[in-house]
Amino acid sequence: PYLDKGVYVILVPARGEVTLEEAEAIADLGASFGCERAIFISTDEAFHKELQESLGGKGKVLRSPGRAIAWIRNREKEDPFIIVCGSTDRGSIHWLEAKRLGLASGRPIVFLAGEGAERVTTDPGEHVFLGPVRGGKDDRTLSAPRDTLAVILDRFFGRR
Q1: What pLDDT digit, counting tens, does each position of 44-71 carry?
Q2: Domains of the chain with bracketed CATH
Q3: SS3 letters across the chain
Q4: What is the pTM of this model?
Q5: Nearest Cα to 148, choosing from 35, 55, 47, 30?
Q6: What are 84's strand-pairing partners?
């Protein structure tokens, strides 16, 4: 109720990181937290088609992060606030600060995750970086996209 615009998850790239079952689980995870759509990036024609058929209406498959952001911009009629879920701490901010900035922006929120997320270029001021999700005794980084997104979405939208 406190967000005026939609929330989206973009996984960059989907190929190699997720199976069809994992993609469905990520789309379901996003929906359970109130995300409008999970968007998967795939340049592989065969996988693109297979993934889109597997997801049905649960998610969307596009060829580039730029197209995904443009699709969101067109759908929401506003530039999204992008939260890049990174793999390094360099240049990152605390998740509470990212949440505050996202809410204060009043814009649609996009969580950009996956191995290719940090290489996506957006206009300055349109994005912030989160460091990797860590936990456990060794303070290890989570590597599975679904686990990482589950923690991030819970931090942003879970009830505590």
Answers
A1: 888 888 999 999 888 999 998 889 999 9
A2: 7-157 (3.40.1280.10)
A3: CCCCCCEEEEECCCCCCCCHHHHHHHHHHHHHCCCCEEEEECCCHHHHHHHHHHHCCCEEEECCHHHHHHHHHHHHCCCCEEEEECCCCCCCECHHHHHHHHHHHCCCEEEEECCCHHHCCCCCCCEEEECCCEECCCCEECCCHHHHHHHHHHHHHCCC
A4: 0.86
A5: 30
A6: 112, 129
